[in-house]
Structure formats: C-alpha cells, structure tokens
Amino acid sequence: MKKIVVLTGAGISAESGVQTFRDANGLWQNHNIMEVASPQGWARNKELVLEFYNQRRRQLHEVHPNEGHKALVDLEKYYDTVIITQNVDDLHERAGSKNIIHLHGELFKVRSTGDENLVYEWKKDLNIGDKCEKGYQLRPHIVWFGEQVPMISVAAKEVMDADIMIIVGTSMQVYPAAGLVSYLMQGTPIYYIDPNPHISYELQRSANLEVLSEKASTGVRKVVNKLTG
Ligand code: OAD
Predict the structure, then answer these.
(1) Which of 19, 21, 28, when mutated, tests ligand 1's pocket best, judged by the most ligand atoms within 8 Å of its CB?
(2) What is 48-71 written as a DSSP string?
(3) At the topology level of CATH, where does 22-62+109-142 sit?
(4) According to the model, what pLDDT value does residue 35 have?
(5) Is the pLDDT of residue 110 over 90?
(6) 3-44 pLDDT, tens per residue?
(7) Average pLDDT over all residues of the chain
(8) Does domain 3-18+65-104+149-228 have CATH number 3.40.50.1220?
C-alpha cells in the first residue's frame, strides 16, 4: 500500500463554522496572540486565556465535520493514510479518520501545569481552581507560541516515507509545521488545496506541486477521486 500524508490547517474546518486565524476577521485579528496563546500571556492573565479557550471549546460542541474532512476518510481504503493536523478541533476524528497526529494540541484535553504527563479529557469550561490529581492548576492542552512542538519529530518521520502529500487549508506560515514539506523525498507529488494558497519557500522548491485554489469541501473530493480512481 502506498502512503499518503495529509497536512491540514484551520481552513479545512472553516466550512464547519470554525474561525481560521489569519483570514479577514480571523481569530488573530480580534485577539492578541501573545495575550491568549503564549506562556507569557498565561502568566499575566490566566482568566483571559481560559476564557479564550472556553469559547473555542463551547463552539466545538456545536460544529460538525464537513465534506473536506469526510473525503479524506475515503483515502484509507486505498492508502496507508496519516493526517497531521495543526487544528485543535476533533473534526477529523468525528469524520472517521483513524490515524491523526495533533501537532498543536487538542481543545478537548487539558493538562497539569505541574506535571505535563497528566493529560485529561475535558469537554466543559476550564476554570481557575480546576486542578490535577497532584493539586496543580490545569491548563489547555494546546501548544502555545514559543513552546516546543513535541509531536513534530513523529510527524516528520511520517512525511519522510510518504509517496504523496496533500495539504489543505493552511497559510503555511507557522513553523515547524510548514517546514514538514522539506522532509519529503525529492519529487514526491504534493497537492495543495486552499482558496488563497501561500506558496512557502519549501513549496517553491517542490518539483511536483499541484495547487487547487478552492475550498476544502470541493477541492479535497477532487484530489481524493483522482487518487482513488
Ligand atoms: P491560518 O488562519 O493561518 O490559515 C487558514 C488558511 O485556510 C488560509 O490559507 C485560508 O486561505 C484557508 N481557508 C479559508 N477558508 C478555507 C476553506 N473553506 N477551505 C480551505 N481552506 C480555506 O490557519 P493555519 O495555517 O491552520 O496555532 O494556522 C497555523 C497555526 O497558527 C494554527 O494551528 C494556530 C495558529 O496560530 C496555534 O494556535 C498553536
């Protein structure tokens, strides 16, 4: 079986009603990244950070996977498929994809601020005073700006032996995620689906790039149909 690695970003969940970060009216236009998504912001104002992620978590209960997430599931019948997502939602899981690596954490999980190995499922609001079993405050299980991306080496290993890569709905501006492309073997086909594609340095160097400038709901289906005959 050939192997497909799919890298997804906020754009694949846009048609489900989840806001992206850098589009017009995206989350980073209305919120200061360093205030709500950095260790410094957490140190300064925990309530603000918790409320930002509580809003995201509440919203996640109200949205559903769209045609883009669903089309990717069909790949699994034909390919060894790995989804590397920058998204913290669980829409790939709910669509039915099996092999998913969350690079930037998960909204429905929280972890201890005193022992990073203590990670818990968490679907409700997280508040000051919610503590782990060792008595430390819990925080969102999200990779904030300036923090390590623990899953990047696992993801890079998957990319190294991919036969095909599909990229969906990401502005390719956040590293190390955007740099994963450079682990592909030279000449590996890349399909990049995004209505407003950003051809990063790594993508410019690809000898085999096909760009579909369209939404995930239609673009992913086209690529999946092509690859599954
Ligand atoms: P961005 O908001 O940077 O980019 C979203 C991309 O989705 C853009 O390229 C849009 O053109 C595209 N897009 C919008 N609507 C779409 C649709 N219907 N179908 C397909 N694509 C669409 O989001 P990311 O690239 O995911 O990290 O951002 C990367 C990281 O930056 C995020 O994981 C987040 C953020 O800060 C953390 O919070 C740790």
Answers:
(1) 21
(2) HHHHHHHHHHHHHTT----HHHHH
(3) SIR2/SIRT2 'Small Domain' (3.30.1600)
(4) 96
(5) yes
(6) 999 999 999 999 999 999 999 889 999 899 999 999 999 999
(7) 97
(8) yes
Pocket of ligand 1 (CB under 6 A): 9-12, 14-15, 20-23, 26, 37, 86, 104, 143, 169-171, 173-174, 194-196, 198, 215-216
Confidence tier at 107 by pLDDT (50, 70, 90): very high
Q: Which atom of ligand 1 is nearest to the CA of 26?
A: 2
Question: What are 2's two structure tokens?
Answer: 């050939």
Closest by Cα among 172, 149, 148 to 103: 149
Question: Token pair of 45, please?
Answer: 């104002």
The burial of 30, by beta-carbon neighbours within 10 Å (0-12 exposed, 13-18 middle, 19 or more buried), is given as exposed
Q: Which helix (H) or strand (E) holds 165?
A: strand 164-168
**Cα 196 to ligand 1 centroid, rounded to whole Å:** 10
User: What is the domain partition of the chain in residue ranges?
Assistant: 3-18+65-104+149-228, 22-62+109-142
As annotated, the active-site residues are: 104
Task: State how far the Cα of 92 lies from the Cα of 72, in Å rounded to an integer.
Answer: 9
Residue nearest (by alpha carbon) to ligand 1 atom 2: 21
Side chain identity at residue 138, one-letter code: L
pTM of the shown model: 0.97
Mutate to test the pocket of ligand 1, among 15, 23, 213, 220 (most ligand atoms within 8 A of CB): 23
Ramachandran area for residue 24 (φ above 0: left; ψ -120 to 50: alpha; else beta)? beta
